[in-house]
Design goal:
By secondary structure, the chain is α+β, with helices and mostly antiparallel strands. The chain starts with 9 loop residues before the first strand and ends with a strand. It contains two helices and five strands.
């Protein structure tokens, strides 16, 4: 399967600072295709980066993966190496 022809094109990766902790960050990933198995993807990300994480399900059409720590560059490299997205994909970093 060619990743450039899939629905993973608009991925938003955002970093959020936790309110109650001075040095704690969360990285959110949204805009992924619902065809992905989010549980397996989350498990692979947690194992790869040695961090905690969970899935938020806002609606039936939107799921968000949240990881602890600043994992923005790691996530991008992980998706490209595992052929989930191609390098021409639009990645939006919000901070």
């Amino acid at each position: 399967m060619d990743p450039c022809n899939t629905h993973y094109i608009n991925i938003n990766i955002k970093i959020i600072r936790r309110i109650y902790d001075r040095y704690s960050w969360l990285t959110t990933i949204y805009g992924l295709s619902l065809q992905l198995n989010f549980k397996k993807l989350l498990l692979a990300l947690k194992r790869e980066f040695s961090c905690g994480g969970w899935i938020l399900e806002y609606t039936e059409t939107e799921k968000v993966i949240i990881l602890e720590g600043d994992q923005r560059k790691n996530i991008l490299n992980f998706f490209i190496e595992n052929k989930k997205i191609c390098q021409k994909s639009r990645i939006v970093y919000n901070s």
